[in-house]
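Quiz preparation item.
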């Protein structure tokens, strides 16, 4: 065959191949569409027209389900749940669970979605039973295990939550030590409220074994020892935070001060604060030291100390207290200092004191588990010496 003729036939061959492939695709698409019952299109039309109850009625009347229709059922139920329409999500997923024609995999998926629905609705007992059923079928169902752990967490069933967390760690090979340590701390807090200090200490020992840097456990132990009158032991526990979890030192400064006062060692508290300020630079450390200097050595000494600290590492809260001290030392004839002080008070009144390092949630109260993203140990006091970021 002539070479030039070959070159002429190449575009024709390419076009023919494209045409055949397109026809094959159209046949498959048509065949796939034919598998969807006509009522499904009717139900989807109701969804598009904001008539979800009519759509659900249509879906629930379908007798035959295949992989495509099951996926649509699951997706729609999930959509309803995310929109807060939990009752509708439950109806859809419950209908799926009741279908005898579902495969084992599809049944598990539907059961898991229904458990999420029940959890969103606050029906934790029902959600727990479904999760237990899923775990009985597959002990390595991570999604079901995590949901079960969260349910026990909400129910404050801490020992059960610990057991499930250990199973998750075994399956995922990822550490759950921080979470488990907090669960032991929760049990310790319960025991402390019941005045069972021995049980509380045992749980704190377990928490420290799980997470040797658990600042919460050190804080609770310090408070137990302080309540029992063991001030030296309380001081020792509180001061371990400097190495283990320095970000939480500001939370126990007043209690540490009271312990030092109880053993007649006020000066040691001031010396301790001045030492750790050089390393940690927390604004709360500086303010506590300034207040103690004012109490023990007078406003002039406190003013000189705080002025030097604020000059080196500016802080709005530092300036606020500096003005408070200064107003007691000088005559503010025109009232300018008082105006600045009043303005700062108003600006800082609603400033957040804590921030979650995981999701950015901010608030005025300390939470060991973030209310927004549910991460443990992610919320820290805000005490950096930075304009705008500090308080």
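Solution:
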């Amino acid at each position: 065959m002539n070479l030039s003729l070959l070159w002429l036939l190449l575009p024709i061959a390419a076009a023919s191949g494209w045409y055949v492939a397109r026809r094959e695709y159209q046949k498959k698409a048509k065949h796939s569409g034919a598998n969807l019952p006509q009522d499904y299109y009717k139900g989807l039309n109701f969804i598009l027209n904001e008539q979800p109850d009519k759509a659900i009625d249509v879906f629930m009347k379908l007798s035959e389900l295949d992989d495509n229709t099951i996926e649509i059922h699951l997706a729609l139920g999930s959509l309803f749940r995310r929109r807060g329409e939990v009752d509708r999500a439950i109806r859809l997923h419950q209908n799926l669970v009741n279908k005898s024609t579902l495969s084992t995999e599809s049944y598990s998926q539907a059961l898991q979605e229904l458990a999420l629905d029940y959890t969103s609705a606050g029906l934790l007992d029902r959600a727990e039973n479904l999760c237990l059923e899923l775990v009985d079928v597959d002990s390595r169902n991570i999604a079901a295990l995590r949901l079960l752990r969260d349910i026990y967490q909400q129910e404050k069933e801490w020992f059960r939550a610990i057991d499930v967390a250990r199973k998750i760690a075994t399956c995922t090979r990822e550490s759950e030590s921080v979470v488990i340590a907090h669960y032991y701390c929760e049990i310790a807090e319960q025991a402390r409220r019941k005045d069972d200090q021995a049980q509380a200490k045992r749980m704190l020992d377990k928490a420290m074994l799980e997470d040797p840097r658990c600042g919460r456990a050190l804080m609770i132990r310090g408070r137990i020892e302080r309540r029992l009158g063991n001030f030296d032991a309380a001081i020792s526990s509180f001061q371990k935070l400097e190495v283990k979890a320095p970000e939480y030192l500001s939370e126990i400064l007043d209690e540490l001060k009271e312990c030092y006062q109880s053993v007649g060692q006020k000066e040691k508290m001031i010396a301790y604060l001045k030492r750790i300020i050089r390393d940690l630079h927390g604004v709360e450390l500086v303010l506590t030291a300034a207040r103690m200097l004012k109490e023990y050595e007078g406003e002039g000494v406190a003013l000189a100390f705080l002025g030097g600290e604020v000059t080196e590492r500016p802080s709005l809260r530092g300036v606020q207290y500096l003005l408070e001290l200064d107003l007691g030392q000088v005559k503010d004839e025109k009232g300018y200092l008082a105006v600045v002080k009043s303005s700062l008070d108003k600006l800082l009144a609603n400033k957040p004191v804590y921030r979650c390092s995981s999701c950015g949630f901010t608030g005025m109260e300390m939470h060991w588990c973030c209310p927004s993203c549910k991460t443990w140990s992610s919320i820290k006091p805000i005490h950096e010496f930075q304009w705008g970021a500090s308080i």
